[in-house]
Amino acid sequence: MSTAIDRWMSAGGGFKFSSGFAAAVGGYPKGARVLNSAGNGYWLSLIDNNSNDPDATGIGWLATWRAVASVYASAQQTLASGGAKVVWNTVEYDDFAMWHSATGVYKAPWPGKYRLSGSVYLPSADAQNLAVQVMLNAALYKQYFQAPQVSSVSLSLPFDVIINAGLADEFQVNLMAPDASVLAGQVGSNQSYVYGQLEYLGT
Question: Which pLDDT belongs to residue 186?
């Protein structure tokens, strides 16, 4: 068994978190590394006697990989008056499956801190108070740029927020257009007009 382990480690292999092993040795020591559940990155233990499952809680662990998902809109969309969800439908990259196309939201695959950023482009928006809203689990988390639009000029409304999320928490972006519906993006729009990017920052 020991020689099999030596051979595996010599080949660059790693090991995922084991609750049984943690219980047997009194927890992982500070500085220990374990593979994440997807097998494409490592967790680093920040404390001694660490028995927390990093893929379930993340407590006492630091992600040593960069998980980023970028999604943009492929076409122009009409955002109804009130609080309308911004629709992104084209994945640029998402190696860790943080974007869920079926529900149109980002979902946290691990607990910890996330940075959600992006921009909504409005061509010739009607005069009204416009705001971008970041939603966490369908509730308002932060609102940006509620300012009077006094002329029908094009606007780019950015958002950038750091959110402390739990496992499987959901993020989405709404546009608040209280008086009249607006168009977002352009025909053949790309990430510079209507896009969102989620980055995992660790615990």
Answer: 84
